[in-house]
Amino acid sequence: MAIVFEKTKGLTDVQTHYCPGCTHGIIHRLVAEALEELGVLDKAIGVAPVGCSVLAYKYFNCDMHEAAHGRAPAVATGIKRVLPDNFVFTYQGDGDLASIGTAEIVHAAHRGEKISTIFVNNAIYGMTGGQMAPTTLVGQKATTAPFGRDEAHCGKPIRMSELLATIDGAKFVERVTVISPAHVRKAKKAIKECFKVQIEGKGFGIVEVLSTCPTNWGMTPTEALKWLEENMIPYYPLGNFKRPEGVE
Amino acid sequence: MAKVLMKGNEAVGAAAIEAGCRYFFGYPITPQSELPEYMARELPKVGGVFLQAESEIAAINMVYGAAGAGARVMTSSSSPGISLKQEGISYIAGAELPCLIVNMMRGGPGLGSIQPSQTDYFQATRGGGNGDYRVVVLAPSNVQELVDLIIEGFDIADQYRNPVMILGDGMIGQMMEPVEFKKPKQRELPPKDDWITNGTKGKRKPHIINSLYLAPEELEAHNIKLQEKYRKIRENEVKVESYNIEDADVVIAAYGTTARIVKTAISQLEREGYKVGLIRPITLWPYPYDEFKKINPQCKGILTVEMNTGQMLDDVKIAVEGRFPVYFHGRTGGMVPTPNEIIEKVKRIHGGEM
After folding, report:
1. What is the DSSP code string of B213-247?
2. I want to staple B48 with a disulfide (CB 3.0 to 4.6 A). Which of B42, B43, B162, B284 is the partner?
3. ipTM score here?
């Protein structure tokens, strides 16, 4: 009998701790498939810092290095400088990358570190229980913004892909989401293209994935997908912001 | 090898390269910037990598990554910068990775001053970052010893998979002295290939570098394992220089450059007929507590001399266990104790005036 589907070798058989309806699971699978399909799983080293994905080292079937909150790009820099022929990626949330770790991500991009970053943006701190993130939308409620994010008080949410795309060392920047099968296919294409930028030694690459957090948004999984589409995509437009010259 | 005249900070770099260190991640801060400058010049010549990080926090996390990848790696800074590195040092200790950290101490608290001090003794010997961990702390007293401890420090780090800190001060970093590069004592260093993250190559299970243990039973077991390692370090790695303590009427405890000033004071006191001993801890952790048991039981008192307001003093009291009165003399803020100040204190202890 012909095999029509197989689970990627890039994931372990461990059951994840992610909440029902959370899109981390899909994103993990896309990253794992990309590692396997590009033939770099055997030489991959992933860096997972603090956040919902702090336990990602249990799920990715490659060498993993757990990092402090926000510091993954610095840890990945240390690894890549020692092992330039290996494949090094970080998997970071929005509290991690867009708040406590802004210096590390900006400077890793600025140096043109040959690493790849998967940036999962769900507009909230998930692991710690729904606090306001730098990416929380204006008016969106969070446990530390009980009346909704007030622009006058704490500004508008930060758009990291747009910011990073201004940096010369960042060679690939794209924002995707995984709220429908079509979006999932586009997301995977972006992740693979981003990874190729590292494999070809061109510089830093990042894929921002708009993701849901039904638990902390207080929604059902389907409501969350709809909320993301109607509220996040208008503020965080999908699309490619940057790719190496000469590449379509 | 012939002796060469080198500035302390540059001698650190030369010693590290001699020891096989090929990766340096740092950030500028006075009074240690000659070291990253030296590494920026010299590491590329031996196929190594020098990288100036965006902050001390990033630098120590680069060290964390590089150590996980199996490299001999180091960073350096001075007091306020070392404070910023504490987060990373805690992770490195928790994940049990080897690395070398140099702290050329300056005055504090806060931005303090750029003059030499010994005010980070507590931070270095009591952890500094969060959690129940230890860093091996080596305190050189001259540039030759600085070089020797750098070279041996990398071996100690590898042997125990633990961060090692060189605790110097602005004075030792800035002074020039003749040095030679000697091989350290031969150690059995464990292989790294059973834990480093360098890709599975499809031949082994993934390696995970981690300090997170969510189950309390697992974290307790991990901490017990760490403590067992620290016990071995206490057993095997204590280094101390002591002088005339079985016969002394007064014993002085001092480390680093302060101990050199103390030696000048002791020579003068001996010429005047006083019997004065010295305990100079070379490892500040593990601390040479047992050395204090050898002190003359008739000794009139122990004088601790430091460039701070009394930090190693706590360890001296722990070591003495109430057998002798313990006195303190310290200068701080970049002020350096003079031999005359020390001589006067010793005479007062000797005369029963303190």
Report:
1. --SHHHHHHHHHHHHHHHHHHHHH---EEEESTTT
2. B43
3. 0.97
